[in-house]
Amino acid sequence: MCLFDREDTFLKEHAAVVAVAASQAVQVEVDRFSLATSLLSVAARAHCGLPCAITPLSPPEVLGAAPPDSVKAKFEKQTAMSFPDWVAALDKLLPKLASAIRFALAAAASEGDKYQPASSQKAKGGAKGAAPAKKADPKGEGQNERAVQAALQEAAKGVDRECALLHTRLRLLASHALVPKVWCLAAAAVPCTGNVAGDGEMMGLCF
After folding, report:
1. Which of 99, 92, 124, 129 is CA-nearest to residue 23?
2. Segment (H or E) for 136
């Protein structure tokens, strides 16, 4: 029996299921990232003796057709960010997954921007998930500002690690989602000989 029966729709259906599951997994990764960065911010402020409180999380929805409001700036002409080449490779085969991953990476970049010391306004506002700092008296103002900056720097290190972790996990997710799609295309394009190892080698797949 031929391994790749052109009348058999199993591969096509399986590829569709995997693509949907992969897109949903991207949202799960964004939720995890949002929670992790919020906890890192709270821990950093507590470590520096600043008031802190965990606020309700509202991770961006990455499964829609348009980018979430919180990351739209990352897709505007003047402030657009660049994305890894491996994301572009998904556009033709898994466009919805590619879109979700772009939104997720944009959300991570937006979160990282909050911890950049270049913006004094963001620094005064504190880190994500933290309660606004009370206005200090003139004598303690300098000390409080140093504590805010120290908390931002400490949280930024953790957020950078979380961003790198998110990138890695999303790339791994994309590679797994591509496998059944590639098999579908290969099944339609490569003549079947019935030799599993030989057919796999012709398709560039490893066994």
Report:
1. 99
2. none
How do residues 86-100 score in pLDDT, each as one tens digit?
Answer: 999 888 888 899 999
Is the distance from CB of 129 to CB of 41 less than 8 angstroms? yes
CB 57 within 8 A of CB 35: yes
Distance of CA 196 to the CA centre of its chain: 36
Q: Locate tokens 């957020």: which residue?
A: 159
Three-class SS of residue 45? helix
Please tell me the least confidently modeled range out of 25-39, 115-129, 143-157.
Answer: 115-129
Q: Look at the block and give the residue holding tokens 């003796």.
A: 49
What angle is formed at CA 74 by the lines to CA 156 and CA 158, rounded to 5 degrees?
Answer: 15
Task: Provide the whole-model pTM.
Answer: 0.71
| pLDDT exceeds 80 at position 122 | no
